[in-house]
Amino acid sequence: MIKMELRKDGRRFDEMRTIEARAGVVKNADGSALFRIGDTVAYAAVYGPRELYPKFLQDPTKGILRCRYNMMPFSGAGDRVKPGPSRRSTEISLVIEKALLPVLSLEEFPNAVVDVFIDLPQTDAGTRCAGICAASIALADAGIAMKDLVSAVSTGHVNGQVVVDLTYDEESAEGEVADIPVAFMPRTGKLTLLQMDGEIGKEQLMHSLELVRKACRQIYEIQKAALKEKYTFNGESDEE
User: Which of 6, 19, 208, 216 has the fewest CB neighbours in a 10 Å radius?
Assistant: First the structure.
C-alpha cells in the first residue's frame, strides 16, 4: 500500500482548499450565494416561498423544497457535461434537498414551494458539497426560517491515507480511493448527508468524520461571515 507524505497540491491531509463565500450575488433572486472551494464554484439562487402550481402538488400542512443541481458544459476537468437534466443531476438534486430539509421550518408556508437553483460554472470535485454550502447561505439570505446552516465537505482516503476535501485528481487516482460527501448541522453536530463511493474501514471512517467535523466548523464560520458582510457595513445595513 502506497503512503503519501504530502498531497499533490501541497496541502496537509486535514486541510481544505481556499474557500470564498458571498451572499446576495444574484440580483433578482429572493436569496442567493456564491461558494468557492479551490477550483469548484457554486452559485445558488432561491425563489420563494411562492404558491405551488399545479395545485395537486401542494401540501396543505407545509411548504415544499425543490432543488435543481446543474453542472455547466466544460465546467470540469473530466468529460464534458451534456447540457440539460441527467440521471446524475436529478439524483444529486434530491440528495441536496434531503441534506437541507432538516434545518428548514416549512410548516410556516403551506401550499407553497421554495425553489433552489444551483449552477456550477467551474468544478474540481466536491460539487454537491459546494452546492449545499451555497444553497444554505442563499436560503438564509432569502429570509427562510432555519434552525441552523448546513455545512458540507468531502472526506475519504487515497491509497490508505485519510484526507479531507478531495480534488478531482485524488478522486480519479489509481489505487484504493474512497470519496465520502458529508454534511453537518454545525450547532448540533447532526449529520444531514453521508454518502460513500468506494470502500473504507470502520477506524478510517471514524477518523474521516472527525476531520469533517473540524472542517465544517471552519466552513460554518465562513458562511456566517458571508451573511454578516452583506447586511453589515460599519455597523449599519448596506441597504439603507
Answer: 6
3-state secondary structure of 233: strand
The answer to whether residue 140 is domain-embedded is yes
Cis amide prior to 110 (ω within 30 degrees): no
pTM listed for this prediction:
0.90
- Whether 148 and 103 have beta carbons less than 8 Å apart is answered as yes
Q: What is the residue whose three cell numbers read 432561491?
A: 46
Which domain, by its residues, includes 187?
19-230
d(CA 10, CA 3): 15
Domain count, the chain: 1
The helix/strand/coil state of 20 is strand
Do 35 and 23 touch, CB atoms closer than 8 A? no
What CATH number corresponds to the domain at position 33? Answer: 3.30.230.70
Give alpha helix (H) positions in 114-157.
Answer: 127-141
